[in-house]
């Protein structure tokens, strides 16, 4: 059989509209039937679905009704990804969603979708398939979940619109598992379309905007790109943990409800706590440092981090997932910088090695250049970065912080010079870092602190922390901080504390930048920003 | 050399008191010196620490001053756990805390501690060690961190008070890394003592109560038992993820800030959210179910869960770590029950296999019986559980919920009959479960739901969820729930949803019960309850 989606492109707009209308009407009918059956959940109607006495397909199609665990079938469902030419001639059972459904005379073509994979199923009225069965199947609304029993057949030409291009299923049985409403708030195909318009005809195709996507997130998440993005995001967490565990890090969990605002009271969410109030932690830093003072040596934690910033940008969320680490070092904080650098290389290599299919699926919708990195990672001094910017015509002071445009420009300059999308900037000016940052021992204009960048945007900020309580107090006072407010923080270091350094990484930002995506809402499954609290 | 802690037991109380006083005085002196040096962080005073011109140890002891990363030493520090009889005769550098320090004439004995491990270090005035060095070392306060260079020596008799019992270090160099204050709010040795009193003499020993421990958590966490508890807790998370990843689960992250109270509005913390308000999620359930409706198939998430319950019991926290999973199944929710059962067996076996030393360290302070489990897991019907309770004299209705005492009694009965500390209770009465629980297809008195228990306490509650929107609405109405309030929840299932089941596990509870501990505050690094928000 041919490629039905490609065929569809040739059909006239008018005919398409009519076909859609007919399909919708039929779908509503099928749905009402499915709903009636669903409302009667105690009735096992598997055997009663076919109607006429002369139906050759009787008992080979229909609705299961609501699956209520009345029977544990020993049937094996084959993943769509396993339906390859190796199985040609075999009968398989497959469960999937109807991605595309099209009837054409005595034939019906379905594309069945399962996460990133899809396969074509064909029904043709004949020896095994009755008119009644064809009618039933072609009336099932798109996005419904069905079980198909079919024979794997080689296709004469590649089916471009499916992941399984060399085979299709010649359908023998079709059972409805769960019906979708016929009217969808968005079409998965529209949501899966690249933003970039290919040609004039493509310009007529619907694109789904970010808010519509997020309002209907469960449909939006069904696109191949989204299926892949969140699998890759899980991969980043796995690789982060794996890299650090190998080096002796211990996973810890830190409280999100805290008694005092962790970073000075700005941008913090307040919580009613019984008769009093509390705050949501803006960072697990204090707790990571306490774990170090408590002899856990090297720790990491993955968890929610909250920022009450009223920023509606492409890269800010009010709640995100923090990948935080902290490490006691022996003699020099570069031991920690090296550890973090290696960890990122482990992540980048692991993604290339294990998530090739996902990256490809994402790039089909969101094209991007492959992510370049050096091994070992490129480390530049802050002063070198400033020099590069000055050479490019930027005027700035030695100890001025990097503005967002300068940060991005520096990323481009570094890429041009060193061909890397990842680099480390070390020895930031002391003046632009928090009070607990250790000054450089040679020159207090600088500090033992670092940022790391992906495609020119900061993804981790870290430093050697001051582990000496007297010096910490002195630095806090120099910053005009009321030391009585941070007494418990300072006291954490009074009973012997090893020198230590660490940092915090935003998970969504790492995934966004690795993939070259344009908005952090694309890498948060259920994003939170000042204007969005649902779904 | 002998075992200094054992020797200590024989010393008279009076002498001990005097020695302690002297030590404290000396320690204060040493500390002031260390502090003075620490306040002068830019000065590298390594070479200036020894004073007199005729000091044979000159340059072999002193303080590093605050380690500010001025030099990256290439020295290799040997972990204390690696200091075994294999290294006898070799010189090693070791970093650790002074756990015990005792001077005796021209000798000084230290026990150096590193997480769960410890080793004895000996200094004796002679060829390599001057009086000045001995004085310096014996004046360093307990809990300070030091670097020791020493020769590994076999000991004539086992040193019971150290983890390294066959060797000690003959000290050649000692450098102060970070000084502790001399006066400690609790002694790590006291915090490490078993609650059970061994004998009359032991009854005089100080025990540290729960609040003092938590108020001084960074010291309390340094005990071998606590070092082991939180390493084992990290192990539970690792094993949970490993078991589920192997079965194709995808890790997801769900928002903690939500727009409406997830479970009806009781026991929920309110958050100020810019000009409006929001809530803290009591469970990731809705989001897990949405991920299932969005085709992720099998998902898990580890994250903070919040309960505004004003319960001050041994097993309630206001914030805990949830290990949550949700899984689309094919035909029967027992596919999910089996998956969770296997996962627990993977965890129990993994702990036995990889955390033997930690379990031993914990049992030395908190004795418990080894955790027993069957493979495959024991599954009982709720009605069977009720029968067992009735046989033991309990009067209860068929569809009455398990009270906490009955839950515990049933645990004892199951243990006596089946010799397992882990079992699954299936088919709970529908009446005691939430509206979204799928009724049993045979008899609506029961439901497709389950709890699992460790040592007679519930650690996971789960069920097949209703995936049909019409039936879900009908059940909500029967529960008297205003369906307009949960519209978005119901709408999640309108576009085709596979049958699914899942559950949520409390991490701290699993660790507490596995180890037979008596309080959940022992397994939360920084616990939160209605009365505690710090540290």
UniProtKB/TrEMBL annotation, chains A, B:
It is found in: Cytoplasm. Its EC number is 6.1.1.12. Keywords: Aminoacyl-tRNA synthetase, ATP-binding, Cytoplasm, Ligase, Nucleotide-binding, Protein biosynthesis. Gene3D superfamilies: Bira Bifunctional Protein, Domain 2, Nucleic acid-binding proteins. Its main location: cytoplasm. It catalyses: tRNA(Asp) + L-aspartate + ATP = L-aspartyl-tRNA(Asp) + AMP + diphosphate. GO terms for biological process: aspartyl-tRNA aminoacylation. SUPFAM superfamilies: Class II aaRS and biotin synthetases, Nucleic acid-binding proteins. Residues 1-62 are annotated as: Disordered. This is Aspartate--tRNA ligase, cytoplasmic.
